[in-house]
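Onboarding guide, step 5: your first structure request.
Type a short instruction followed by the sequence, for example:

Predict the 3D structure of this protein.
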Amino acid sequence: MFDRYEAGELAILVHIDFSSESDREDLEELELLVSSAGVKTCGKITGTRNSAKARYFVGTGKAQEIADAVKLLNANVVIFNHPLTPSQERNLEQLCQCRVLDRTALILDIFAQRARTFEGKLQVELAQLRHISTRLIRGWTHLERQKGGIGLRGPGETQLETDRRLLRARIKNIQARLAKVSKQRDQGRRARSRAEVPTVSLVGYTNAGKSTLFNQITQSNVYVADQLFATLDPTLRKIDIADVGEVILADTVGFIRHLPHDLVAAFQATLQETQQANLLLHVIDVADPRKTDNIEQVTQVLEHIEADDIPQLMVCNKLDSLEGDLAPRIDRDDEGNPTHVWLSARTGDGCELLNQALTELLSGQIVTHQLSLPLNVQGRVKGLLYKFECVQTEQYDELGNALVTIRLPIIDWHKLLKKSDGELTQYICG
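The system replies with structure tokens like these:
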């Protein structure tokens, strides 16, 4: 179902406006999804309904209009901007004599093309298998026949039953592998937790500019493209934040409205990077006219994965795309804490303000001490202090003692005490 033709595909898009706001989709977003999947749109059919019909999702007349358009335009596939039931897909395929995909299958197809890592490919395959498990019959009636041949005639397992059994076995196998991957990720997170390294996770609507911002902050070369779901596999990088020290920054898959539940379940191991983060950077495309709705959709997904209670910093990206000469800035709440950072990830304008906001939100309590180090311990202790990059000033008294002023987050101070077995406390002046 998900193989691509080498010559490309011609698709007819079907978009129905429903009176209920919860069922409404965006035709422009569907066109972006189709483009991201590498499919060319040859026609669009729209309509309005109060509710979906059981047989064809649309009315009989509209279904015939779709079938006529397929023949007229020589389309290879019909893509609905809505979820379809297996019976609706089967009925439409029989009528149109071509493949019919719904919104969920389209997103799965894009994910299948984007997956690069072993874990990502497993997650996509699991989501695909769960989706097609109820669609095995589709238009292929020969799958209902029993096996033929000597020794295989009579009562027995049909081809369809065999496929279902193999499908269940494959799903169970993938789930076991993903459980192992999840365990390995947990071990990595526990190690970072023991080392008291905070984690910051980038979240946001797809194509909001998360990977561009990630590259700007970490000086990395993560794949960036102006298309939906350009990033699928999570990427982690270590960065240094003033008065905080080392921080792990995670670039994650973008969210989308009505994200299929199969995808959320399959990507549970990846989404744990978001669930376990100390801070979420919610990246917003401020140039998108649908930004308010996109923020709401991301919030719903965060609630679904139980990550809505994690502190968030709103990153208002693509400032360079807005009209007027708008300068980067930090918005603060009544207590003076950063709530929004306005910047352009593409040009880099305002990224220094983001670092400033991260320092304020992650540093917590800063401690300052002056140490008087005798001559016999100066080399060893000063080496440890410089390793933590916390030395502010260094002088010597008439006895040769080193007077060192250090400034660092309280978390790093506790690390220093642990490294020195508490020895540093005896050198604190005053």
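Each response can be followed by summary notes, for example: The longest strand covers residues 40-49.
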